[in-house]
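## retry 2 of 3
previous attempt timed out at serialization; input unchanged, resubmitting
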Amino acid sequence: MGVAWVFEIEQGSNQPSAKEVKSSFFTFFFSFFAFQIERTLEAGGAETVGTYLVDCIPYTPREKMTSNVNYIMHHSNFPQSTFSIAPGDKTNFKEMARAICDKGFDLIIKNMSSGFEPDNAAKFAISGTEYRFNDFSVRVGSALQVSTFKGVVVEVEYEPLFVTTQALMMLNDFMKHFFSKHMNSKPDVLEDKPKPETYSPMDTMYQYLKIFNAMRKRAN
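## retry succeeded, writing output
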């Protein structure tokens, strides 16, 4: 595990409306855009190494509970883990309730006496292709909310280092070369820190969660 930068591919002024995205034509349009990204990576020397999956489902507290919504997430790069994030009213990731649990935690949470219910209508999933480029792993996938196409998400991971400040220069160089239009989309977990901090898989999942929540707020 290294340090990752996760971002959504923005289409700019030519991006179709959410209503248009629902049509099969524009779903094909976005899929073709993902295909173009993959071809760019391959032309630069990246090799296909497999596929990957990320999913996220909110668990909402039952009536009369005061708990926060708990987002349960999985990533195929961490097959034995379940990630739990309950942001509440916190905006600082370090202050949020979060935990890395054993696989299957999501089967337990809904059976707790206090009770949480899965919000299946808000479930997100990303599936796509994983590439290898020297010391980088790059994952390009299509995001769906249930069955509605929402966009293209890219994860760039620099594997040799696990201290954020040490890996940032290499990530910046890679982004500048392949995704220069997204240099300004640096996640807050990667911002310069006053002291070195060890990067965690939870930092990656938090980046995905922010993207999912932004997609969820868009009009359908």
